[in-house]
Structures are given as structure tokens and as C-alpha cells.
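Encode chain A's predicted structure.
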Amino acid sequence: MPNPAIPAVLQCDGLCFHYPQRTLFAGLSARIPPGVTLVRGGDGSGKTTLLRLLAGTLPAQAGALQANGVSLQSQPETYRQQVFWADPQSTVFDQASPLDYFKTVQRSHPRFDEALAHELAQGLSLAPHLDKPLYMLSTGSKRKVWLAAAFASGAAVTLLDDPFAALDKTSIAFVMELLHDAADHSSRAWLLAHYQAPGDVPLALTIDLGD
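Encoded structure for chain A:
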């Protein structure tokens, strides 16, 4: 359980969402503290949908969200500056290079650290691909671009959907190191959607959506 004395980075109150044939969330509330939170669940449990709701890119039928004290309902643009989200399946940026994509993220996230993004790109073995259009990259390399941007975004809330998918062992180990560092952060929150806990990374909270 999160320490109530520590201010929540992300506050979710009464979130409701349903598809025509299925209700996923009926009054979901959560208080997300700094550090790493695991959104755990099996296939079809709603992990990605929840991240999209928290990112403000998918509208909920009811409920309220606040990130770093900013309300999605009353200040949507400012809210989205507090939250980093990249859909791993997106093709929106396929014509752009990783360097172009980093500049796009920098425009939408004022605390984006360009030098750190380049350092992370090196750590993820992306250096040979930084000038190539994203459509030329493998699935794993594209995911590395999203991850480099995520950890360099400076966002109060960073949403990571299955971050180890399609990665090589060296890159998985590198991301695990980043998560270990994130676990100790005092003012930022990372939400990791995955079917199990990420190794020995200390978790601030687990949101279990079931199997």
C-alpha cells in the first residue's frame, strides 16, 4: 500500500469504461505514488486500455484524473504535458526518424532531456538507426525509440505498455536498470503494464486487473 503521507503523482477517481459488449472498469480509483507501479493482468484484462485512459487519449465514460495536481477534465492540454504515453502499435510517426520523433516529444513535454535521449539511444543500441525513418526499423528497434523517449521525457507520469516485448536480452537488462533507478524517484511515477512483476524492481503499488 502506498504511504498516505506521500502525495500522489497520479490520482484516479471513479473511472468507468466499457466497450459495447464488455465493461472493463466500473468506478476504478487509485492513488499512484512516486516510483514504479505495476499494472498487472492477463491478455484482454484491459492493461493497455487503462494506460490509454490515464494518458487522456481514450475518453472514459465517467471519472476524474489528476496528474501532478493538474486535472484532465479542466486542463486537458496541461494534463497531457504531465503524462508520457506512446502507443507501441502506432504508425503515426513511421515517416519520421527517431531524431524527429524526439523533437516532437520535446515540443509536447517541456522537461524532455534531449541529451539523455541520445544517451539512452546509445544504451539501447539505436545509434545506427537515428536518421532512418521509423518504418524501416524492426519492431524491437521501434520500441526502443519509444522507451528512450519515455525515460527522457521528464514527465511526472510515464506509461509503459509491455516494455520488454520484442527486445533483445541486452536491451531488457538496460531497461531493468532504468526501472531500478525509477523506483527510487521521489516525485515521478512510472506505470508498467505487464503480465508479471519486472524481476526484482521494487514496486510502489500493484494494480491487479486479473487474468
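The CA atoms of residues 1 and 10 lie 15 Å apart.
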